[in-house]
Amino acid sequence: MALLLHRIGRFAYRRAWLVIVAWVIALGALLGAGLGLGGQLQDSFAIPGTESQTAIDQLAAVFPQTAGASAKAVIEAPEGDTVDSPDARAAIEDMEAELEDLDGVASVLGPFDEYAGDQISGDERTAYIQITFDGQVTDVTPEMLDAVTATGEIGETAGLEVAFGGDVFQETSFGLTITEVFGVLFAAVVLIITFGSLLSAGMPLLTALVGVGAASGGILIVASFATVSSTAPMLAVMIGLAVGIDYALFILSRHRNQLARGQDPEDSAAEAVATAGGAVVFAGLTVIIALLGLLVVGIPFLSVMGVGAAFAVLIAVIGAVTLLPALLGVFGKRLAPKPGSRAHRRANAADDGGKPTMGRRWVDLVLKAPVVFVVLVVGLLGAAAIPAASLDLNLPNNAGTPGSTQREAYEMIESGFGPGYNGPLIVTVDITQTTDIFEDLDAIGSQLAELDDVAYVGEGLPNETVDTAIIQVVPESAPDTPETKALVEEIRELAPSIEAEFGTPIAVTGYTAVAIDISNRLADALIPFALIVVGLSIVLLLMVFRSVFVPIKAALGFLLSAFGAIGVTVAIFQWGWFADLLHVEPGPILSFLPILLMAVLFGLAMDYEVFLVSGMREEYVKTKEPRTSIVHGFQHAARVVTAAALIMFFVFFAFVPEGSGVIKGIAFALAIGVAFDAFLVRMTLVPAAMALAGKAAWWLPAWLAKRLPDVDIEGEGLRAHLEQEEWAAARPAAINVEEAVFGLAERPIGPLAVEVPAGGVLVVRGEAVDRRVVAATLAGRLAPVSGLVVVQGTPLPTGQGRVMRHVAMAEVASDAPTGTTVGELIAARLDATRPWYRLGVSGSQVRDWTERAARALGAGAPDAVGGGAPVARFDADTPLSSLGAEARTVVAVAAALAERPRLVVLDLDDEPSGASAELWSALAALVPATVTLIVGVGTDASAPDASPALAARGIRTLEPVSRSLEAHR
User: Fold this and answer.
1) Quick check: 869 and 862 in contact, CB under 8 A?
2) What is the DSSP string of 579-590?
3) Sign of torsion, CA 596 229 232 420?
4) What distance in Å separates the CA atoms of residue 769 and residue 741, rounded to the nearest whole number?
5) pLDDT beyond 60 at 697
6) Which residues of 479-488 are buried (b: 16+ CB within 10 A; e: fewer)?
7) Residue 168's closest CA among 289, 49, 72, 282?
8) Residue 832 — pLDDT band, cuts 50, 70, 90?
């Protein structure tokens, strides 16, 4: 990955304006399409598979009158008056009539209608009109809502107070307030302090804002075709802005340090993208995987939020490794710290000399008493997590935002009727098996009324086909209280006895029941999801650090910070501590907050872990001194990790004071989680625990080390690759081998050395196994054990993919399949390597390569060199089985050449006659002078210098012998 990122970084640097223009076009296209399509955001909390959702779907099919979007017009009479007074009653009835005439309104049920329920309060000061629309919430237009609210003037003229509530009035637009802007400004201040340069500080902000804009446009496009909650774009903006700034910060910080040490700007940009960018890609992928893990929970609106946030993170990662290096290319050397500046001195300071940095002083303090700091951090986070034990989850109610007509209506219902009237339950009754419909419905209603916390039970109302009825049950408690949850469970526990007595299955539904079902499912999924995230972190960190202790410690630290953040959130948002200070209304915690917090915080925690511990690992690999490695690695990364954590904290916390009710809790939990994880876990607990573990911190079982892939986060392999490229550039040749060992560590071949010019011939002479291992390694199919191996200017093994694209293997079949022709063999090779845009293999190409092989074989025949019988010609339809060994070899080489390679690998039979002078002459005629040929032959085979044409190209010989065979001899 490091090599790929290095190439991307160098390309973006060299083609800076091309990359920038591409980003501008992409940004304009996404935003333009998103705004142009006009997608609407909708808070649809559907949850397939639950009793409440199944009942809602059934009602939509058999009782469509109840399935449309609904609203309430709440009317309150002045103090000392009632809604039943002649003037008030007339005004209310006029409002009803006006509402019934509006387009899109399906039905209106007033407080004085024959079938009205409990729609007038006990003191007769408050009443409400129930409004049902033809379509769903997304079908209700702003013009329709304006027409509905305009009817309120009738009541207001009569001296009544009128407010409108319901799901159609829920605020689904999103936008940034001045406090979020302050968050960005705080981030800018941190960047200026970190870099000491306005130009450098502006780059992470620019890339993050571009990424957020692109992500928002993409989400708006999706909203035109699918249901997207109003929280999804706000969450994407918040997370995309934070990670976008941080990811660019990591790469730019590395680039400026390298510039300060005198590195060439282009080389520095490419290396920064390959090394720091590798950590960025790793961290971004962990966030994306964790967010996409929300799909497993099976809740559509949460899945959309996870996908939207994951898309924002993906855009941030792509921007950091493409747009940022393009900006580095535009400004070039102007980003280098000035000699004598603080940034320049820090970059060139010795690890153990000069004035110690704040990071160095802190890690020295921690390592003086690591046990004390471990106990303090675990104790502090453990204490912070205690409130999490009383976690009460629920979805947001329909209260609306303060000052809105929805909030006014909610409060008027609560004060006039009771809190339960803001979240009535709907009990569906299957009446297909009963003949005494109304008697049974009354009896069922009586049983429901006897339950605790029931304020009112309405009359049973059958549908037109008399197969389903509904009964409204109003709790005494508010929709988001534990008492209402208990009532829902009691009704469901009562269902079996009602079905047994009346033969009428019942189910509980309504917004309140759906919210409770979602909260219960999320609460049940929290622990399994946490285990999945922790397991993922252990696997990923095992690959990165090749250590058992580091992943386990990182995972446990993540759990400490996550549950500590949840505990603090419960104390403030549920218990009400400091609620007024933060403009928080105490109540249940948003049901999807804990699982969303774990998904996002996991990636950020691994981000800080990688940047801190990778430096420690790099030092440990060099020195094998655990304590010194911790100190030096920490002091190098402390400043950038501190800046990144502060930026995250400020960006997240800026959404708390004036953010929407849903996003406020999420932002607060993320801000506290970042602070806990960065400053307590990563920068305190990690160095203390690593010091206590000593060398055991880097232990990894040998059997596991062999099975783990090598993830080159710090770019060690990249640096070796670049050194090999530099070494090969000084020795231009098709193949360069120096002190190279082939095969396996337990059966090594070599060391070997050779240099083959472009278009030359390399003869690998020896036992079949040994020569084929060497040839396969040079073809990029196997990795060398050690040493320098460069093919076509590309080092191995890091450049195996590129080498394989330029090398073709000539496969000579000793027993050709019956019926296979020369043309079919060549066509198969052409088909395997043809471009995607070509529909098939050209017959002219097959004939061309067939004729080339025939001419070459004729050139090597005895009659062509003076004597002997002429060789029979063949064409594309000639069966391979009818050809001799030499002819089949030439056809195999022609088929390989059809792939247009730069190098062809051929292995001949061990029989001495397999490499005849005629064959060498035919190969000289067939293989172009620009193509290098590797030929494996037996120990007694003739050399290709029998052909003057091949000898003129330059022939080199390798005689590989495995050490085990050499020892046996």
Assistant:
1) yes
2) TTTTT----PEE
3) negative
4) 15
5) yes
6) bbbeebbbbb
7) 72
8) confident
